[in-house]
Amino acid sequence: MDVAAREPQAKCGLEWRVTVPEGASVTVEHDAGVAARAWAWLVSCVVAIRVAVAGFARKVWKIGADDPRRAVHGLKVGLALTLVSVVYYTRPVYDGVGGNAMWAVMTVVVVFEYTVGGCMYKGFNRAVATVSAGLIALGVNWVADKSGDKLEPFILSGSLFLLAAAATFSRFIPTVKARFDYGVTIFILTFSLVAVSGYRVDQLLDLAQQRMSTIGIGIVICLAVCVLIWPVWAGQELHLLTVRNMEKLAGAVEACVEDYFAAGSAKPAAAASSKSEGYKCVLNSKASEDSQANLARWEPPHGRFAFRHPYAQYAKVGAAMRHCAYCVESLSSCARAEAQAPEHAKRLLGDVCTRLGARCARVLVEASASVAAMTDPKTVDFAVADMNTAVHELQGDLRALPPVLLALEPAAEMSLMDAMPLFTVASLLIEISARIEGVVDAVETLASLANFKQVEDGDDKKGQTTETKVHPLNVQDDDASAQENQTMKHAEQEHCNTTVK
Amino acid sequence: MDVAAREPQAKCGLEWRVTVPEGASVTVEHDAGVAARAWAWLVSCVVAIRVAVAGFARKVWKIGADDPRRAVHGLKVGLALTLVSVVYYTRPVYDGVGGNAMWAVMTVVVVFEYTVGGCMYKGFNRAVATVSAGLIALGVNWVADKSGDKLEPFILSGSLFLLAAAATFSRFIPTVKARFDYGVTIFILTFSLVAVSGYRVDQLLDLAQQRMSTIGIGIVICLAVCVLIWPVWAGQELHLLTVRNMEKLAGAVEACVEDYFAAGSAKPAAAASSKSEGYKCVLNSKASEDSQANLARWEPPHGRFAFRHPYAQYAKVGAAMRHCAYCVESLSSCARAEAQAPEHAKRLLGDVCTRLGARCARVLVEASASVAAMTDPKTVDFAVADMNTAVHELQGDLRALPPVLLALEPAAEMSLMDAMPLFTVASLLIEISARIEGVVDAVETLASLANFKQVEDGDDKKGQTTETKVHPLNVQDDDASAQENQTMKHAEQEHCNTTVK
Fold first, then answer.
1. Which Pfam families match (chains A, B) (predicted)?
2. What is the DSSP letter of A411?
């Protein structure tokens, strides 16, 4: 991209118009010497900075445009903070930042999270940890108070040391880490503040009561803004991520098989190739699935997600999909390999393999539609049966292949060995179909745990279409990331999960 | 396991000794009726609770015993907190928890992290964010002060809203998220506290100066305790994780091939099988590699890790290893498949495949030794050459296989088709060896970026041995996790990375 940089002080009579490629510096050959060269250097610097800023601005704009909920999240945090500051600003007895108002502000800043689940998790942890640590600290202070001036500092410091050490260590316990990590921090913080405060117990009771109420106000404002204004539910994000990944996996299986059998005739089109990379998103979404499943458990019932929705099972569906994606990765590397089976051998299995690929994809698409619409995955069974028929056909064709190849060419052994990559592709496909059954099993478990509703024939399709229309943002997002998803390295940077914080 | 529960009130004359299996409730058939049954229920409850507590205690003990540095971390946090509280407790002018002492305590609680890198990251972010937000807030307060009483609240609230929204949104930018996430939180927090404080600018300057010094004291105490007492370096953890994963991958490649060719003769031993699962740790360590590489960049030079050590390249080595592990996963599923090639066909390729597997493993072991000892991976090239020779041998044997099989049996076509799983294993092995070359390339890039030292022949082995002895903890840890690592589900729960917080 070329940039036309117009020198700003044009009115001095000197007018420059330099057209430079992005990032390049302008080299002006001139007799005027040092001054002119310095000037040219300055101009090139200004241009480079402008280009960098424009590039950065474009990136930032894209982040917001890909998912406007992010920009809305920023505004929500601003709103919650302004609300809490206004509440304290307009109170008749305003006691400044040194007082308790700051606890409300602090609560809003640290508790407000992108998803409702995150907000609930932090709010709950903060409230419970503050109360329990406050009570324990009061008890310790009372004991220290009774035991005389000499022992007091030792009791206080000793209990602080022991409790902080034990609480910190408890964060290495996986359950604590997953559910109460933030609470442990707040527990240590509150206990230290109260224990070393030097106040007497009756003063502390007053202080505690005030602080609880301010923290309560902060949490209430946070939750209200988070839930009432365009809420982002971790459970729904997890649900959509699972559906999206299943669709991507379906696309990847089909595209990889097509790529392989098209590779000889012509290089695969860029569009098909980007579709066949979809499995990489599945490979890289473990971390976001786990964190969302963790946060989703804190969320109240909302929409189609009832109380105690089996979010953990989504993580298992994700594990089954990854198990499948490992195989798809091997398949995709076969399509990209240099040593390819001869065309005539490929043609013999092309149809049956492509059919199996398409049917594998159909099973996954049906399963994802059933998850998306939260309907019983009844029709998936038919698709699985079709897929297994295709597997048997492929196995039959494979069995029939050697005689055919032997008949086609005199140097039959050579021909058989050249066809080896084809055998590999076929057996990977068979393995993939077995793993897809694993995904279907996980989906069926999910359906029974979450009481997915039974549908009459015909209703099913309708539910699906509605579902897709409800979340246009995520579909866009999805396409955008699929477009970029060109190299392994990109996928490793996990940009597939653009909606995941 | 049986537990002998002795009823505590034995002195009442009633002595019970109930032996129950873990978690089971005791059912006592008795004529005495409700009271006796209630009593039995109570006893069974006590027993169940005791068993649960004992089980939990054993788990917690294991977490600490697996890596004593975790327990030490707890003690370090306790020590840092006690130190900071003592500093403020013994100061002549002690102003209580409402004053500035709390900022030092708060800093220690939130800044102290398991790794030095984490501590530096949080300390740096906290310091810079506090200073910058404080300065901006002072400026805004000054402007608001000058613009009259009516405009003041609007300027303050408006700037709070805009800055909080912009800062929150900036967390979605990947670079900001990775390096300054905590800083953004502190920026918003400090700005809100100062902006809505209602103090005049000259009061604020005093307050700011005091607060900076307390936060500074907190950060200094944190870093001192973190670095001086048994420090845990994120860079070293990343380094060891990479070495360990490479060794596990080597073991898995070799064990999978052996399992496959041993599967017919006898079921593979449990020990071999657990070794062949090592690739799962590689598959699941992306998240910890990324986070450690992120934290390691904040660490000062230490030991063999110089300033600007190329930690990002470790993540690339990890990506190459994962790329390889996907294929090993497919290979391992071949060994576990029901449809196996006939024994006589397996025997024909058994030797050459096992040799290739062993040489693949050797390449990885040499590469990991070179990374571990931080020496130039010169000897790896020989191992790669050996591996490639084995690949050529395998390809030659494969080419010779059809005539041999044709000669062995009359129904040659059938025999060839039955041998298909064998072809799949062979081509997967060839693909694995190609991907191992990718790992070696990544290791060589790492070696050149990190200026790994050149070694004379013979020195190399010595360096290796020393290295292994330096970190007995991690080796133990490793073995322990390999033992448990039985199922896919376990590996999915990422317990392989037990040393990773």
1. ALMT
2. S
Task: Verify whether the Cβ–Cβ distance A169 to B197 is below 8 Å.
Answer: no
Reading the block at residue A215, the tokens are 């923290």
In the predicted model, what is the mean pLDDT of residues A53-68?
90
Residue B10 — left, alpha, or beta (φ > 0 → left; ψ -120 to 50 → alpha)? alpha
CB contact under 8 A, A82 and B157: yes
Q: In this structure, how many other beta carbons lie within 10 angstroms of the beta carbon of residue B325?
A: 28
Give A336's pLDDT tier (boundaries 50, 70, 90): confident
Which residues on chain B are in Cβ contact (under 8 Å) with A153? 89
What is the SS3 assignment for B61? helix
Alpha helices, H only, A229-342? 234-262, 270-276, 279-283, 286-296, 311-336
Give the distance from CA B120 to its chain's centroid.
Answer: 19
Give the closest of A79, A162, A420 to B161, CB-based.
A79
CB contact under 8 A, A402 and B424: no
pLDDT interval class at B379 (50, 70, 90): confident
* Cα distance between residue A417 and residue B401, in whole Å: 9
Nearest by Cα to A369 from A289, A467, A235, A458: A467
Model pTM score? 0.79
**Whether B74 and A169 lie within 8 Å, measured CB to CB:** yes
Cβ-Cβ contacts under 8 Å for A400 (sequence gap 6 or more): none
Which among A77, A172, A323 has the least Cβ separation from residue B488? A323
Mean pLDDT calculated for residue range B273-299: 88
Tell me what the pLDDT averaged over chain B comes to.
Answer: 79
Tell which wins on pLDDT, B263 or B236. Answer: B236
Backbone angles phi, psi at A179, to 5 degrees: -110, -25
Q: What are phi and psi of A200, to 5 degrees?
A: -80, 165
Give the nearest chain A residue to B62 (CA atoms): A173
Percent of chain A that is helix, strand, coil (3-state, to 5):
75, 5, 20
Predicted confidence at residue A466, as pLDDT, reads 38
| Nearest CA-CA partner of B427 in B368, B349, B315 | B349
For residue B197, give how far its alpha carbon lies from the nearest alpha carbon of chain A (Å).
5
Give the gap in angstroms from C-alpha B196 to the nearest C-alpha of chain A: 6
C-alpha span between B306 and B292 (Å, rounded): 16
Q: Give the CB-side neighbour count of residue B241, counting CA atoms within 13 A.
A: 31
Does ipTM top 0.85? no
